[in-house]
Specification:
The complex is a heterodimer of chains A (310) and B (241).
Chain A (H helix, E strand, L loop, with lengths): L2 E10 L2 E11 L4 E5 L6 H8 L7 E6 L2 E2 L4 H6 L1 E4 L11 H11 L4 H14 L15 H13 L5 E5 L7 H15 L3 E6 L2 H7 L2 E6 L2 E6 L1 H9 L3 E7 L3 H9 L4 E6 L6 E6 L6 H11 L2 E7 L4 H9 L3
Parallel strand pairs in A: 3-8, 3-9, 6-7, 7-8
Antiparallel strand pairs in A: 1-2, 1-4, 4-5, 9-10, 11-13, 11-14, 12-13
Helix pairs in contact in A: 3-4
Chain B lengths: L1 H16 L2 H19 L4 H4 L5 H29 L1 H6 L5 H21 L2 H10 L4 H27 L4 H25 L2 H10 L1 H9 L5 H22 L7
Helix pairs in contact in B: 1-6, 2-4, 4-6, 4-8, 4-9, 6-8, 6-12, 8-9, 8-11, 8-12, 9-10, 11-12
Classes of the chains: A alpha/beta (310), B mainly alpha (241).
Protein backbone atom coordinates (compact mmCIF):
# COMPACT_ATOMS: atom_id res chain seq x y z
CA UNK A 1 0.00 0.00 0.00
CA UNK A 2 1.61 3.22 -1.04
CA UNK A 3 1.68 6.43 0.92
CA UNK A 4 1.71 9.68 -0.98
CA UNK A 5 2.18 12.99 0.71
CA UNK A 6 1.11 15.91 -1.41
CA UNK A 7 2.20 19.43 -0.71
CA UNK A 8 1.62 19.07 3.01
CA UNK A 9 1.59 22.19 5.17
CA UNK A 10 0.90 22.49 8.87
CA UNK A 11 1.49 25.48 11.09
CA UNK A 12 1.33 25.96 14.83
CA UNK A 13 0.30 29.55 15.24
CA UNK A 14 2.59 31.55 13.00
CA UNK A 15 5.29 28.94 12.82
CA UNK A 16 5.22 26.57 9.91
CA UNK A 17 6.15 23.13 11.20
CA UNK A 18 5.75 21.48 7.83
CA UNK A 19 6.05 23.58 4.71
CA UNK A 20 4.88 22.09 1.45
CA UNK A 21 6.36 18.60 1.68
CA UNK A 22 5.65 16.08 -1.07
CA UNK A 23 6.93 12.53 -1.40
CA UNK A 24 5.77 9.05 -2.20
CA UNK A 25 6.59 5.75 -0.56
CA UNK A 26 5.89 2.49 -2.38
CA UNK A 27 5.01 -0.92 -1.05
CA UNK A 28 8.00 -2.89 0.14
CA UNK A 29 10.03 0.22 0.72
CA UNK A 30 11.58 1.30 4.00
CA UNK A 31 12.01 5.02 4.08
CA UNK A 32 14.06 6.83 6.68
CA UNK A 33 12.93 10.23 7.76
CA UNK A 34 15.88 12.31 8.87
CA UNK A 35 16.14 15.78 10.22
CA UNK A 36 17.29 17.78 13.21
CA UNK A 37 14.97 18.20 16.17
CA UNK A 38 11.98 20.34 15.34
CA UNK A 39 12.35 19.84 11.60
CA UNK A 40 8.79 18.58 11.23
CA UNK A 41 9.30 14.81 11.16
CA UNK A 42 6.89 14.05 13.98
CA UNK A 43 4.30 16.49 12.69
CA UNK A 44 4.35 14.84 9.27
CA UNK A 45 3.92 11.45 10.88
CA UNK A 46 1.07 12.68 13.03
CA UNK A 47 -0.72 13.87 9.92
CA UNK A 48 -0.16 10.57 8.07
CA UNK A 49 -1.59 8.69 11.04
CA UNK A 50 -4.66 10.97 11.18
CA UNK A 51 -3.85 12.36 14.60
CA UNK A 52 -3.91 15.90 13.23
CA UNK A 53 -5.34 17.42 10.11
CA UNK A 54 -3.12 19.37 7.72
CA UNK A 55 -3.63 23.05 6.94
CA UNK A 56 -2.98 22.48 3.27
CA UNK A 57 -2.25 19.54 1.06
CA UNK A 58 -3.25 15.97 1.62
CA UNK A 59 -1.93 12.53 2.45
CA UNK A 60 -3.24 9.47 0.64
CA UNK A 61 -2.70 6.00 2.01
CA UNK A 62 -3.51 3.41 -0.64
CA UNK A 63 -5.36 6.12 -2.50
CA UNK A 64 -7.56 7.01 0.47
CA UNK A 65 -7.32 10.55 1.78
CA UNK A 66 -6.69 11.12 5.49
CA UNK A 67 -9.07 14.03 5.38
CA UNK A 68 -12.13 12.44 3.83
CA UNK A 69 -11.90 8.93 5.25
CA UNK A 70 -9.56 8.81 8.25
CA UNK A 71 -11.18 5.74 9.79
CA UNK A 72 -10.42 3.62 6.74
CA UNK A 73 -6.83 4.91 6.62
CA UNK A 74 -6.29 4.19 10.31
CA UNK A 75 -7.19 0.52 9.81
CA UNK A 76 -4.15 0.03 7.60
CA UNK A 77 -1.63 1.88 9.71
CA UNK A 78 0.45 0.70 12.61
CA UNK A 79 1.88 3.64 14.52
CA UNK A 80 4.52 3.91 17.19
CA UNK A 81 4.52 7.50 18.50
CA UNK A 82 7.77 9.16 19.55
CA UNK A 83 6.91 9.26 23.25
CA UNK A 84 5.59 5.68 23.15
CA UNK A 85 2.51 6.32 25.29
CA UNK A 86 1.02 3.18 26.87
CA UNK A 87 -1.68 2.37 29.39
CA UNK A 88 0.91 1.69 32.04
CA UNK A 89 -1.43 0.17 34.60
CA UNK A 90 -2.42 -2.65 32.25
CA UNK A 91 -0.64 -5.99 31.94
CA UNK A 92 1.08 -6.43 28.56
CA UNK A 93 -1.25 -9.14 27.36
CA UNK A 94 -4.44 -7.25 28.28
CA UNK A 95 -3.12 -4.16 26.59
CA UNK A 96 -2.39 -6.06 23.38
CA UNK A 97 -5.84 -7.63 23.61
CA UNK A 98 -7.39 -4.17 23.83
CA UNK A 99 -5.41 -2.85 20.87
CA UNK A 100 -6.20 -5.96 18.79
CA UNK A 101 -9.91 -5.57 19.50
CA UNK A 102 -9.99 -1.90 18.70
CA UNK A 103 -8.00 -2.47 15.52
CA UNK A 104 -10.68 -4.90 14.45
CA UNK A 105 -8.70 -8.14 14.47
CA UNK A 106 -11.33 -10.92 14.15
CA UNK A 107 -12.24 -12.34 17.56
CA UNK A 108 -11.10 -15.89 16.86
CA UNK A 109 -7.69 -14.76 15.68
CA UNK A 110 -6.82 -12.39 18.51
CA UNK A 111 -5.35 -14.98 20.86
CA UNK A 112 -3.05 -16.51 18.25
CA UNK A 113 -2.03 -13.14 16.92
CA UNK A 114 -1.06 -11.90 20.39
CA UNK A 115 1.09 -14.97 21.05
CA UNK A 116 2.74 -14.55 17.68
CA UNK A 117 3.53 -10.88 18.16
CA UNK A 118 4.69 -11.43 21.74
CA UNK A 119 7.29 -13.91 20.53
CA UNK A 120 8.32 -11.76 17.57
CA UNK A 121 8.93 -8.79 19.85
CA UNK A 122 10.68 -10.85 22.53
CA UNK A 123 8.08 -10.25 25.22
CA UNK A 124 7.37 -13.87 26.12
CA UNK A 125 8.67 -13.63 29.66
CA UNK A 126 6.99 -10.29 30.26
CA UNK A 127 3.49 -10.82 28.95
CA UNK A 128 1.76 -11.02 32.34
CA UNK A 129 3.65 -8.13 33.87
CA UNK A 130 2.19 -4.67 34.23
CA UNK A 131 3.61 -2.33 31.59
CA UNK A 132 4.74 0.12 34.29
CA UNK A 133 6.99 -2.58 35.74
CA UNK A 134 8.91 -3.03 32.49
CA UNK A 135 12.17 -1.32 31.65
CA UNK A 136 12.19 1.35 28.96
CA UNK A 137 13.52 -1.04 26.33
CA UNK A 138 10.75 -3.54 27.01
CA UNK A 139 8.15 -0.80 26.98
CA UNK A 140 9.47 0.18 23.57
CA UNK A 141 8.90 -3.41 22.44
CA UNK A 142 5.34 -3.27 23.73
CA UNK A 143 4.88 -0.09 21.70
CA UNK A 144 6.17 -1.87 18.64
CA UNK A 145 4.01 -4.91 19.37
CA UNK A 146 0.85 -2.79 19.52
CA UNK A 147 1.78 -1.16 16.22
CA UNK A 148 2.18 -4.58 14.58
CA UNK A 149 -0.70 -6.44 16.18
CA UNK A 150 -3.17 -6.09 13.30
CA UNK A 151 -0.55 -6.83 10.65
CA UNK A 152 -0.81 -3.37 9.11
CA UNK A 153 0.08 -2.55 5.51
CA UNK A 154 1.77 0.66 6.51
CA UNK A 155 4.04 1.12 9.49
CA UNK A 156 4.88 4.53 10.86
CA UNK A 157 7.61 4.41 13.49
CA UNK A 158 8.74 7.56 15.22
CA UNK A 159 12.23 6.88 16.55
CA UNK A 160 11.65 3.18 17.08
CA UNK A 161 14.99 2.34 18.65
CA UNK A 162 15.23 5.10 21.21
CA UNK A 163 15.90 3.75 24.69
CA UNK A 164 17.00 0.33 23.51
CA UNK A 165 20.37 -1.25 24.25
CA UNK A 166 22.71 -2.07 21.33
CA UNK A 167 21.60 -5.70 21.12
CA UNK A 168 17.98 -4.75 21.07
CA UNK A 169 18.66 -2.09 18.47
CA UNK A 170 20.11 -4.71 16.16
CA UNK A 171 17.15 -7.02 16.79
CA UNK A 172 14.58 -4.32 16.16
CA UNK A 173 16.37 -3.26 12.98
CA UNK A 174 16.32 -6.82 11.72
CA UNK A 175 12.64 -7.02 12.58
CA UNK A 176 11.87 -3.80 10.73
CA UNK A 177 13.82 -5.01 7.72
CA UNK A 178 11.93 -8.27 7.70
CA UNK A 179 8.59 -6.53 7.95
CA UNK A 180 9.62 -3.98 5.36
CA UNK A 181 9.89 -6.56 2.61
CA UNK A 182 6.15 -6.69 2.14
CA UNK A 183 4.97 -3.54 3.86
CA UNK A 184 5.45 0.14 3.57
CA UNK A 185 7.58 1.46 6.39
CA UNK A 186 8.36 5.05 7.29
CA UNK A 187 10.68 5.49 10.24
CA UNK A 188 12.22 8.57 11.69
CA UNK A 189 15.50 8.81 13.46
CA UNK A 190 18.37 11.11 14.00
CA UNK A 191 20.89 8.32 14.10
CA UNK A 192 22.30 8.30 10.59
CA UNK A 193 23.93 4.91 10.84
CA UNK A 194 20.61 3.41 11.76
CA UNK A 195 18.82 4.90 8.82
CA UNK A 196 21.61 3.81 6.52
CA UNK A 197 21.49 0.28 7.88
CA UNK A 198 17.74 -0.20 7.65
CA UNK A 199 16.34 2.07 4.98
CA UNK A 200 16.14 1.80 1.21
CA UNK A 201 15.64 5.50 0.84
CA UNK A 202 16.38 8.58 2.89
CA UNK A 203 14.31 11.72 3.14
CA UNK A 204 15.99 14.62 4.86
CA UNK A 205 13.83 17.44 6.07
CA UNK A 206 14.91 20.69 7.55
CA UNK A 207 12.78 23.54 8.84
CA UNK A 208 9.68 21.94 7.44
CA UNK A 209 11.05 21.50 3.93
CA UNK A 210 12.23 18.42 2.11
CA UNK A 211 15.92 18.96 1.29
CA UNK A 212 16.95 15.52 0.05
CA UNK A 213 15.21 12.43 -1.25
CA UNK A 214 17.58 9.67 -2.37
CA UNK A 215 19.35 6.51 -1.34
CA UNK A 216 22.12 6.40 1.23
CA UNK A 217 24.70 5.46 -1.38
CA UNK A 218 23.75 8.35 -3.64
CA UNK A 219 24.05 10.75 -0.75
CA UNK A 220 27.39 9.27 0.11
CA UNK A 221 28.58 9.57 -3.46
CA UNK A 222 27.43 13.13 -3.50
CA UNK A 223 29.53 13.70 -0.41
CA UNK A 224 32.59 12.02 -1.88
CA UNK A 225 32.31 13.71 -5.21
CA UNK A 226 35.08 16.07 -4.26
CA UNK A 227 38.12 14.21 -3.10
CA UNK A 228 39.70 15.47 0.08
CA UNK A 229 43.11 14.26 1.21
CA UNK A 230 45.35 15.09 4.09
CA UNK A 231 49.08 15.21 3.34
CA UNK A 232 52.14 15.84 5.44
CA UNK A 233 55.20 17.02 3.54
CA UNK A 234 58.50 17.48 5.31
CA UNK A 235 61.95 18.81 4.44
CA UNK A 236 60.64 21.92 2.72
CA UNK A 237 59.52 25.46 3.42
CA UNK A 238 55.94 25.55 4.50
CA UNK A 239 54.97 28.54 2.42
CA UNK A 240 56.64 27.25 -0.69
CA UNK A 241 54.94 23.88 -0.36
CA UNK A 242 51.65 25.66 0.08
CA UNK A 243 52.19 27.70 -3.07
CA UNK A 244 53.26 24.72 -5.14
CA UNK A 245 50.31 22.63 -3.99
CA UNK A 246 47.94 25.36 -4.98
CA UNK A 247 49.41 25.58 -8.42
CA UNK A 248 48.53 21.97 -9.21
CA UNK A 249 45.84 22.00 -11.88
CA UNK A 250 43.41 19.61 -10.29
CA UNK A 251 43.55 21.19 -6.83
CA UNK A 252 40.75 23.48 -5.87
CA UNK A 253 41.64 24.37 -2.32
CA UNK A 254 44.57 23.93 0.04
CA UNK A 255 44.18 24.35 3.76
CA UNK A 256 46.94 24.61 6.32
CA UNK A 257 46.01 22.42 9.22
CA UNK A 258 46.49 24.52 12.32
CA UNK A 259 47.77 21.82 14.68
CA UNK A 260 50.53 20.53 12.47
CA UNK A 261 53.31 22.58 10.93
CA UNK A 262 53.70 20.62 7.72
CA UNK A 263 50.23 19.17 7.17
CA UNK A 264 47.77 20.30 4.56
CA UNK A 265 44.24 19.41 3.62
CA UNK A 266 43.70 19.40 -0.10
CA UNK A 267 40.37 19.46 -1.83
CA UNK A 268 40.38 18.47 -5.48
CA UNK A 269 38.08 19.83 -8.13
CA UNK A 270 34.89 17.92 -8.75
CA UNK A 271 35.53 14.29 -9.78
CA UNK A 272 39.25 14.85 -10.17
CA UNK A 273 42.16 13.22 -8.47
CA UNK A 274 45.33 15.00 -7.31
CA UNK A 275 47.21 12.28 -5.48
CA UNK A 276 49.50 11.42 -8.35
CA UNK A 277 50.32 15.04 -9.02
CA UNK A 278 51.17 15.67 -5.38
CA UNK A 279 53.50 12.71 -5.29
CA UNK A 280 55.25 13.85 -8.48
CA UNK A 281 55.63 17.33 -7.08
CA UNK A 282 57.32 16.01 -3.97
CA UNK A 283 59.71 13.90 -6.03
CA UNK A 284 60.58 16.85 -8.22
CA UNK A 285 61.29 19.15 -5.31
CA UNK A 286 62.99 16.52 -3.16
CA UNK A 287 60.46 16.78 -0.33
CA UNK A 288 59.52 13.81 1.79
CA UNK A 289 55.90 12.85 1.61
CA UNK A 290 55.30 11.26 5.01
CA UNK A 291 51.55 11.04 5.04
CA UNK A 292 48.76 10.93 2.52
CA UNK A 293 45.35 9.93 3.79
CA UNK A 294 42.01 10.32 2.10
CA UNK A 295 39.59 12.21 4.33
CA UNK A 296 36.33 10.38 4.17
CA UNK A 297 33.27 12.53 4.01
CA UNK A 298 30.54 10.91 6.00
CA UNK A 299 26.80 10.95 5.73
CA UNK A 300 26.93 13.16 8.79
CA UNK A 301 28.64 15.85 6.75
CA UNK A 302 26.00 15.74 4.04
CA UNK A 303 23.36 15.89 6.71
CA UNK A 304 25.02 18.91 8.26
CA UNK A 305 25.43 20.66 4.91
CA UNK A 306 21.79 20.12 4.07
CA UNK A 307 20.23 21.02 7.38
CA UNK A 308 22.30 23.89 8.71
CA UNK A 309 21.21 27.11 7.10
CA UNK A 310 24.20 29.22 6.17
CA UNK B 1 -21.17 0.27 18.67
CA UNK B 2 -18.70 -2.55 19.14
CA UNK B 3 -15.80 -0.07 19.21
CA UNK B 4 -17.56 2.02 21.86
CA UNK B 5 -17.98 -1.08 24.02
CA UNK B 6 -14.26 -1.95 23.70
CA UNK B 7 -13.34 1.50 25.00
CA UNK B 8 -15.97 1.30 27.75
CA UNK B 9 -14.67 -2.08 28.86
CA UNK B 10 -11.11 -0.84 29.16
CA UNK B 11 -12.19 2.27 31.01
CA UNK B 12 -14.34 0.32 33.47
CA UNK B 13 -11.48 -2.09 34.11
CA UNK B 14 -9.18 0.79 34.85
CA UNK B 15 -11.74 2.19 37.33
CA UNK B 16 -11.67 -1.11 39.19
CA UNK B 17 -7.93 -1.71 38.80
CA UNK B 18 -7.10 1.71 40.20
CA UNK B 19 -9.41 1.16 43.19
CA UNK B 20 -11.28 4.29 42.09
CA UNK B 21 -14.46 2.28 41.70
CA UNK B 22 -14.22 0.63 45.13
CA UNK B 23 -13.49 3.91 46.89
CA UNK B 24 -16.40 5.51 45.09
CA UNK B 25 -18.81 2.70 45.94
CA UNK B 26 -17.79 2.45 49.59
CA UNK B 27 -17.91 6.20 50.15
CA UNK B 28 -21.21 6.58 48.38
CA UNK B 29 -22.87 3.73 50.23
CA UNK B 30 -21.38 5.00 53.48
CA UNK B 31 -22.62 8.55 53.07
CA UNK B 32 -26.02 7.81 51.65
CA UNK B 33 -26.58 4.94 54.10
CA UNK B 34 -25.60 7.06 57.07
CA UNK B 35 -27.96 9.87 56.23
CA UNK B 36 -30.75 7.61 55.02
CA UNK B 37 -30.85 5.31 58.05
CA UNK B 38 -28.98 6.80 60.96
CA UNK B 39 -28.65 10.55 61.04
CA UNK B 40 -30.54 13.75 60.23
CA UNK B 41 -33.96 13.54 58.68
CA UNK B 42 -33.64 9.81 58.16
CA UNK B 43 -36.37 7.35 57.29
CA UNK B 44 -37.33 6.67 60.92
CA UNK B 45 -37.55 10.33 61.81
CA UNK B 46 -39.71 11.14 58.79
CA UNK B 47 -41.84 8.14 59.56
CA UNK B 48 -42.93 7.59 55.98
CA UNK B 49 -42.41 4.52 53.84
CA UNK B 50 -40.45 6.27 51.10
CA UNK B 51 -36.92 6.73 49.90
CA UNK B 52 -37.19 10.53 49.70
CA UNK B 53 -34.39 11.06 52.20
CA UNK B 54 -32.13 8.70 50.23
CA UNK B 55 -32.79 10.53 46.96
CA UNK B 56 -32.21 13.85 48.67
CA UNK B 57 -28.80 12.87 50.01
CA UNK B 58 -27.72 11.01 46.86
CA UNK B 59 -28.40 14.12 44.84
CA UNK B 60 -25.54 15.79 46.72
CA UNK B 61 -23.14 12.88 47.16
CA UNK B 62 -23.28 12.10 43.45
CA UNK B 63 -22.76 15.76 42.65
CA UNK B 64 -19.38 15.62 44.41
CA UNK B 65 -18.36 12.11 43.41
CA UNK B 66 -19.05 12.28 39.69
CA UNK B 67 -16.41 14.93 38.89
CA UNK B 68 -13.91 12.73 40.75
CA UNK B 69 -14.77 9.88 38.41
CA UNK B 70 -14.76 11.90 35.22
CA UNK B 71 -11.73 14.09 35.90
CA UNK B 72 -9.25 11.52 34.61
CA UNK B 73 -11.21 10.32 31.60
CA UNK B 74 -9.54 12.57 29.05
CA UNK B 75 -7.15 14.70 31.13
CA UNK B 76 -5.04 11.70 32.09
CA UNK B 77 -4.88 10.49 28.49
CA UNK B 78 -3.77 13.91 27.36
CA UNK B 79 -1.11 14.05 30.03
CA UNK B 80 0.36 10.62 29.33
CA UNK B 81 -0.06 10.98 25.56
CA UNK B 82 -2.18 7.86 25.24
CA UNK B 83 -4.85 9.98 23.59
CA UNK B 84 -2.62 9.95 20.51
CA UNK B 85 -2.72 6.18 20.55
CA UNK B 86 -6.48 6.11 20.88
CA UNK B 87 -7.10 8.68 18.18
CA UNK B 88 -4.83 6.95 15.68
CA UNK B 89 -6.79 3.71 16.09
CA UNK B 90 -9.73 3.22 13.71
CA UNK B 91 -12.28 4.89 15.97
CA UNK B 92 -13.97 8.26 15.63
CA UNK B 93 -13.82 10.97 18.27
CA UNK B 94 -17.49 10.34 18.98
CA UNK B 95 -16.82 6.69 19.68
CA UNK B 96 -14.07 7.61 22.14
CA UNK B 97 -16.33 10.12 23.88
CA UNK B 98 -19.30 7.77 23.96
CA UNK B 99 -17.15 4.93 25.30
CA UNK B 100 -15.83 7.03 28.14
CA UNK B 101 -19.22 8.50 28.95
CA UNK B 102 -20.73 5.04 29.06
CA UNK B 103 -17.99 3.72 31.34
CA UNK B 104 -18.60 6.42 33.94
CA UNK B 105 -22.36 5.97 33.59
CA UNK B 106 -22.11 2.21 34.12
CA UNK B 107 -20.02 2.75 37.23
CA UNK B 108 -22.82 4.95 38.62
CA UNK B 109 -25.37 2.31 37.63
CA UNK B 110 -23.40 -0.33 39.53
CA UNK B 111 -23.16 1.94 42.55
CA UNK B 112 -26.87 2.70 42.52
CA UNK B 113 -27.73 -0.95 42.00
CA UNK B 114 -25.98 -1.65 45.30
CA UNK B 115 -28.50 0.58 47.07
CA UNK B 116 -31.42 -1.59 45.94
CA UNK B 117 -31.37 -3.39 49.33
CA UNK B 118 -32.53 -0.06 50.79
CA UNK B 119 -35.58 -0.26 48.59
CA UNK B 120 -36.24 -3.88 49.54
CA UNK B 121 -35.87 -3.08 53.26
CA UNK B 122 -38.19 -0.09 53.14
CA UNK B 123 -40.74 -1.97 51.05
CA UNK B 124 -40.83 -4.61 53.80
CA UNK B 125 -41.61 -2.05 56.49
CA UNK B 126 -44.81 -0.84 54.92
CA UNK B 127 -46.64 0.01 51.74
CA UNK B 128 -44.28 1.88 49.43
CA UNK B 129 -45.07 3.87 46.30
CA UNK B 130 -43.15 1.79 43.78
CA UNK B 131 -43.67 4.35 41.01
CA UNK B 132 -42.05 7.07 43.09
CA UNK B 133 -39.01 4.88 43.77
CA UNK B 134 -38.54 4.04 40.10
CA UNK B 135 -38.87 7.71 39.20
CA UNK B 136 -36.41 8.62 41.94
CA UNK B 137 -33.80 6.25 40.59
CA UNK B 138 -34.49 7.44 37.06
CA UNK B 139 -33.98 11.00 38.26
CA UNK B 140 -30.64 10.05 39.81
CA UNK B 141 -29.55 8.38 36.59
CA UNK B 142 -30.50 11.38 34.46
CA UNK B 143 -28.81 13.74 36.88
CA UNK B 144 -25.68 11.55 36.93
CA UNK B 145 -25.55 11.39 33.15
CA UNK B 146 -25.76 15.19 33.00
CA UNK B 147 -22.88 15.68 35.40
CA UNK B 148 -20.81 12.98 33.70
CA UNK B 149 -21.26 14.83 30.46
CA UNK B 150 -20.18 18.09 32.09
CA UNK B 151 -17.28 16.32 33.80
CA UNK B 152 -16.14 14.79 30.53
CA UNK B 153 -16.11 18.22 28.93
CA UNK B 154 -14.09 19.62 31.85
CA UNK B 155 -11.66 16.73 31.47
CA UNK B 156 -11.20 17.43 27.76
CA UNK B 157 -10.03 21.01 28.17
CA UNK B 158 -7.02 20.29 30.36
CA UNK B 159 -4.35 17.70 31.01
CA UNK B 160 -4.49 18.32 34.74
CA UNK B 161 -6.96 16.19 36.66
CA UNK B 162 -7.34 18.64 39.53
CA UNK B 163 -8.21 21.43 37.12
CA UNK B 164 -10.73 19.13 35.46
CA UNK B 165 -12.27 18.33 38.85
CA UNK B 166 -12.58 21.99 39.83
CA UNK B 167 -13.96 23.07 36.46
CA UNK B 168 -16.57 20.30 36.61
CA UNK B 169 -17.60 21.33 40.12
CA UNK B 170 -17.68 24.97 39.11
CA UNK B 171 -19.95 24.37 36.13
CA UNK B 172 -21.98 21.88 38.13
CA UNK B 173 -22.69 24.15 41.09
CA UNK B 174 -24.58 26.53 38.80
CA UNK B 175 -26.99 23.81 37.77
CA UNK B 176 -27.08 22.30 41.23
CA UNK B 177 -27.62 25.40 43.34
CA UNK B 178 -26.89 28.84 41.94
CA UNK B 179 -29.54 28.99 39.19
CA UNK B 180 -32.09 27.89 41.75
CA UNK B 181 -31.06 30.53 44.30
CA UNK B 182 -30.94 33.28 41.68
CA UNK B 183 -34.32 32.42 40.29
CA UNK B 184 -35.96 32.89 43.66
CA UNK B 185 -34.43 36.34 44.05
CA UNK B 186 -34.98 37.46 40.45
CA UNK B 187 -38.33 38.22 38.91
CA UNK B 188 -40.33 37.82 35.74
CA UNK B 189 -39.17 35.88 32.70
CA UNK B 190 -35.58 35.87 33.94
CA UNK B 191 -36.60 33.98 37.07
CA UNK B 192 -38.51 31.53 34.91
CA UNK B 193 -35.48 31.02 32.68
CA UNK B 194 -33.15 30.46 35.64
CA UNK B 195 -35.69 28.16 37.21
CA UNK B 196 -35.81 26.16 34.01
CA UNK B 197 -32.02 25.96 33.83
CA UNK B 198 -31.72 24.71 37.40
CA UNK B 199 -31.10 21.00 37.47
CA UNK B 200 -32.41 20.63 41.00
CA UNK B 201 -35.88 21.84 39.96
CA UNK B 202 -36.13 19.11 37.35
CA UNK B 203 -34.63 16.52 39.63
CA UNK B 204 -37.03 17.31 42.44
CA UNK B 205 -40.06 17.02 40.27
CA UNK B 206 -38.84 13.62 39.12
CA UNK B 207 -37.92 12.50 42.63
CA UNK B 208 -41.47 13.32 43.71
CA UNK B 209 -42.62 10.75 41.19
CA UNK B 210 -43.82 13.05 38.43
CA UNK B 211 -42.70 12.22 34.92
CA UNK B 212 -42.66 15.06 32.46
CA UNK B 213 -41.22 15.05 28.96
CA UNK B 214 -39.93 18.58 29.64
CA UNK B 215 -37.67 17.30 32.40
CA UNK B 216 -36.35 14.47 30.26
CA UNK B 217 -35.74 16.86 27.38
CA UNK B 218 -33.85 19.12 29.79
CA UNK B 219 -31.53 16.35 30.97
CA UNK B 220 -30.96 15.10 27.44
CA UNK B 221 -30.06 18.64 26.32
CA UNK B 222 -27.43 19.00 29.04
CA UNK B 223 -25.96 15.58 28.21
CA UNK B 224 -25.84 16.43 24.54
CA UNK B 225 -24.36 19.88 25.14
CA UNK B 226 -21.58 18.42 27.31
CA UNK B 227 -20.71 15.73 24.79
CA UNK B 228 -20.81 18.20 21.90
CA UNK B 229 -18.47 20.53 23.80
CA UNK B 230 -16.09 17.63 24.37
CA UNK B 231 -16.14 16.76 20.68
CA UNK B 232 -15.45 20.38 19.71
CA UNK B 233 -12.46 20.52 22.06
CA UNK B 234 -11.13 17.20 20.80
CA UNK B 235 -11.47 18.10 17.14
CA UNK B 236 -9.59 21.36 17.67
CA UNK B 237 -6.35 19.61 16.69
CA UNK B 238 -7.70 19.18 13.16
CA UNK B 239 -8.57 22.78 12.56
CA UNK B 240 -6.29 25.21 10.82
CA UNK B 241 -5.04 27.91 13.13
Amino acid sequence: MEVSVENLTKSYGFQKAVDGISFKVNTGEIVGFLGPNGAGKTTTMKIITCFMGPNEGDVKVGGISVQTNPEEVKKHIGYLPETNPLYKEMPVIDYLQFVAEIQGVPKGKIRGRILEIVSICGLKGEKYKKISELSKGYQQRVGLAQALIHDPEVLILDEPTSGLDPNQIVEIRELIKKIGREKTVILSSHILAEVEATCDRILIISQGKLVADSTASTLRKQAQDKEIIKVTIEDGDRNEIFRCLQSIETVELVDLLPDYTQAFEIQSKASMNSRRAIFKLCVEKGWSLTEMTPVERKLEDVFRDLTIPN
Amino acid sequence: MNKIWIITKRELRSFFDSLMAYVMIVLFLGFSGFFTWIFGSDIFLVGQVSLQSFFGISFWTLFFFIPAITMGLLAEEQKSGTIELLITKPVSDWQIIAGKFLAAFLLICITLALTLPYYVSVANIGKIDHGAVVMGYLGLLFMSASYISIGLFASSITSNQIVALLVALFIGIFFQLIFDLLSSSAGGWFAALLGYLSLSTHYESMARGVIDSKDILYFLSIIFAGLLGTELVMSKRNRAN
